[in-house]
Design a protein that fits this description.
Layout lengths: L5 E2 L2 E2 L6 H8 L3 E5 H17 L7 E6 L6 H9 L3 E4 L2 H9 L7 E3 L6 H9 L4 E4 L2 H13 L4 E8 L21 E2 H13 L3 E7 L10 H19 L6 E3 L16 H18 L7 E4 L3 H4 L3 E12 L4 E5 L8 H5 L5 E3 L8 E6 L8 E8 L6 E4 L20 E6 L2 E6 L4 H4 L8
Helix pairs in contact: 2-9, 5-6, 7-8, 8-9
The structure holds ligand LLP.
Ligand LLP binds next to helix 10 and helix 11.
């Protein structure tokens, strides 16, 4: 298998022995690199260390929704990662993968009573509460189970993350978090609830941020709120700035994680000395995409080349059900032919077999390919497999993790029979 080498942070076809993987595991298949995952997680972990933080004063809570394969979670758990979850299902996944409950934070606007009970029974690190109604429900459920729920309020700092509207979450009009102006009152309420223990404050302003300025602006807002809470005798033990750092999809130049964390810690340290009486505060992060996005590709095989008067189509065996991002956000993913051909490259739309015009993976790409060739769809490690579906009764792709010279199957390709195994005919 080829050596691991990066091109501006993008893992490319050459980084894997893709023909062997296709032969062994078939296509479409998600292929991840263990080395890239570790390097990307290490960027966070090392920056925390560099700024004098240990496990108690900084915690990276990997955002499970970006890629929730057990092997990925297990690898990160072994690096000491915590986890940001948004459902009871993700909680059970993290535990099954060997993650520690005391490092789990639970985000999401719609936690059910059952999910609250489950999380309370495992003594997770905290609930990121997103509304007053949720706070009251959590107080009630915690009371029934004889526990005190550790709570952080997700505050909406109303800063513009300057990213795609579907993945921007920190503006007033979003459904997420509580308004900055209301946060103080909700904390006051939380302080009176017997089964709630206030532990932190959090925000998440959006995803695929290339610049850290909006994040640092959000940090200022959170700090302002912490100061006001402290004055009222409400103590905040952790500050969670969320995830959101972007990756290079199409020549994008995201801020380096180390640089962002340096600026963030510098601000926090200055504030602690100046106005926080040097009191300790634990810093939490919830990165997803910046850890897995460019650690994976989607490997697919060209089924047909179709030349119509208006366009050329490369019809491949991966589709929108495997990688939703282009159909959903018009997202751009690099496409690379695995084998170089001498033939002249022509312009193709790379599309899947699903019966929807929205079923495309890439548009207007110059490719020299023939039927049966392999393509690598790049930067597909985050929000790829986790957003996949069985539309058109298509079994979901296999997942493979490459570790040095070995490729390991970390999720079998689904079998069609499994897709309707839960269905029943009428009597
Ligand atoms: N924390 C919270 C509360 C979140 O909602 C998210 C992502 C994250 C952390 C992780 O953000 P990241 O570091 O990955 O940017 N499906 C979309 C992205 C949706 C992001 C949802 N929230 C996409 O494919 O681009």
């Amino acid at each position: 298998m080829s050596h691991f080498s990066y091109r501006n942070g993008v893992l490319c076809a050459e980084d894997f022995a893709l023909p062997n993987i296709a032969r062994q595991f078939g296509t479409p298949t998600y292929v991840y690199s263990k080395a890239a995952l570790l390097e990307n997680f290490g960027a966070y972990a090392n920056a925390c260390k560099k700024h004098g933080r240990d496990e108690n004063s900084a915690l990276v809570c990997y955002s499970v929704k970006s890629n929730s394969n057990l092997a990925v979670l297990n690898l990160l758990a072994k690096q000491g990662s915590g986890f940001d979850i948004v459902s009871g299902g993700e909680l059970l996944r993290v535990l099954a993968a060997g993650g520690e409950a005391r490092k789990i934070i639970f985000s999401g606007v719609g936690k059910t009573r059952d999910e609250m009970r489950l999380a309370l029974s495992h003594d997770i690190l905290c609930f990121n509460v997103e509304s007053t109604a949720e706070l009251q429900r959590l107080n009630e459920v915690a009371g029934q189970t004889g526990k005190q729920a550790p709570v952080s309020l997700r505050v909406n700092p109303n800063v513009d993350a300057k990213t795609h509207p579907y993945i921007s979450t920190g503006l007033k009009e979003n459904k997420f978090g509580v308004a900055f102006e209301e946060a103080l009152d909700i904390y006051r309420l939380a302080a009176t609830l017997p089964h709630i223990r206030i532990t932190g404050i959090d925000c998440h302003i959006g995803s695929q941020l290339l610049d850290d300025a909006p994040l640092l602006e959000a940090l200022d807002k959170l700090i302002e709120l912490i100061d006001r809470l402290t004055q009222e005798g409400i103590h905040i033990h952790h500050l969670d700035i969320g995830g959101g750092i972007g990756i290079n999809y199409n020549g994008d130049q995201p801020v380096a994680v180390g640089d962002y964390l340096s600026r963030l810690f510098a601000k926090i340290d200055a504030w602690r000395v100046a106005t926080h009486n040097n009191r300790p505060i634990t810093v939490l992060f919830e990165p997803g995409r910046s850890i897995v996005g460019n650690a994976g590709i989607l490997l697919t095989e060209v089924q047909f080349l179709k030349h119509s008067p208006a366009k050329n189509f490369a019809i491949v065996d991966a589709a929108m059900n495997d990688l939703m991002r282009p159909a959903m956000y018009e997202a751009w993913h690099g496409v690379q032919a695995v084998n170089q051909r001498e033939a002249k490259a022509i312009i193709y739309d790379v599309v899947g077999p699903v019966c929807e015009s929205g079923d495309w993976l890439a548009r207007a790409r110059e490719l020299a390919i023939e039927e049966g060739d392999l393509l690598a769809i790049l930067s597909a490690g985050a929000y790829g497999m986790t957003m996949s579906s069985n539309y058109n009764t298509r079994p979901r792709a296999a997942e493979v993790m490459v570790d040095g010279n070995q490729a390991y199957l970390i999720r079998e390709r689904e079998k069609v029979e499994q897709l309707f195994a839960l269905e029943k005919l009428l009597p």
